[in-house]
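To whoever is on call:

I kicked off a structure prediction for a single chain this morning and the downstream step that reads the tokens threw a length-mismatch warning. I double-checked the sequence; it's 533 residues and nothing unusual in it as far as I can see. Pasting both halves so you can look.
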Amino acid sequence: MRVPPYGSRRVPVGARDRRARFLPPPPGRARLTDDPPAVAVAGGGIAGFAAATVLAERGARVTLLERETSLGGRLAGRPVRLADGSRATMSRGFHAFFRQYYNLRALLRRVDPGLGMLRPLPDYPLRHSSGLCDSFRRVPRTPPWSAAGFVALSPSFGARDLLRMDPVAALPLLDVSAADIHRALDDTSAHDFLGSIRFPRAARHLAFEVFSRSFFADPRELSAAEMVLMFHIYFLGSSEGLLFDVPDEPFPAALWDPLAGRLEALGARVETGTPAERVEPLPDGGFGVVAGGADRRFDAVVLALDTDGLRGLVARSPRLGDAAWRERVGRLRTAPPFLVSRLWLDRPVRPERPGFLGTSGYGSLDNVSVLDRWEGEAARWAARSGGSVVELHAYALPEDTEPSAEQELLLGQLHRVYPETRAARVLDARHEWRADCPAFPVGGHPDRPTVRTGVPGLVVAGDLVATGLPVALMERAATSGFAAANVLLHRWGVRGEPLFTVPDGGRSRALRALARWGRGRTGKESTTAPART
């Protein structure tokens, strides 16, 4: 299967949704010629790889700088040796590759046109400790039947719950514009918004809070705009549905080694263990970059860093950007800490257990993954040992959480969720404690950087970036990386990368009309405006 050249398609490769939105790049020549500009890309995660790949394909001299010794950012993996002497890969944990992640998939198709490295999971089940369970396997994918089907099939929606809801207050969900939703709802928390529409409490815990915690945030701290945007992306804006794929091998083998190899084949330099320490504008319009203790000169810079990395680099670079931009960057916050525990057990979990299970009501446990259900490395270890590899996630933990105590608590919750694991012996365990995900707090949207910085030749990418497009999480990282490359390429008169998103706004005239009527009844500010990049 050959990937069509950039700019040649108006529908994403492999997309089910024929209404996916196509954003063509500005016109220009095909490639840079003569003396191509040198570009530093600081950050080797999804956003950095997306920007570096497009720039290198168009002929720029790219240097990718990653402070860690491994690539991938929050999808990085590191080799470990287990107690039985075997080698394994420890990562930052499970990530769902949803099918509306068009730009992330376009990046991965560079090294695997058929996306053979991704394996579909048959369901996205959610379980509450009360016994309620939800599933998305049988939920229709096409809006508005997706939301209607979820309500009809979910045990957390009773007739009395539906009667108590305020349907008029919920109507704006039918017509969400990514460009304007923050003006309407950024000053409201996700928790308060759900309360205002009287969303059933059981469904709130089982569905929306599971989703909101995927932003590593307590719903009381998360901007309602982000949650409503997510509702649009996965439910009422896209017909791709809520089922997803996962890599069939650890992240380095499946993603980063092939992508790094392709970058190097294009002439780019990939340097790990080399942080960008300082960036200073030069009188000739270029940039001086101190990286790995050495001074270097580049014509342009892409800052594809996490929140702390961006904030720290800007603080160390006193001439970078104007005062207002620097102040906004300085106010950016990270989400609370999270824990990923991976356990190698001496016996299998029951065969009917799903590969991934979202949980609520089990203390701090947010989900359970049985890695040997889909990941080749884990499956091979399980086959050799007769055991299983299980991963536990806990998001938005208190700052003063004691690590060893929390790890024991998660293990105890696993025993509640899957009782057969009580008898299992933990042959080995690895734990990742992190606090480096971006926060999307109530009222925080004005401080988030955009791709453009106001400094010619300096752009920002990452999942913390405000794009004005209906994208989130890994897809926001990939989209902003492509957009950052496009800004630089347009400056040099070169055509960039097309972008795709789910439709922006309501999918039908009837839904949009209902939403307008609802806004008129409540007197709330419109959530619809033309999207902008």
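Update from on-call: the warning came from a stale cache, not from the record. Cleared it. Sanity check on the structure: The longest helix spans residues 473-491.
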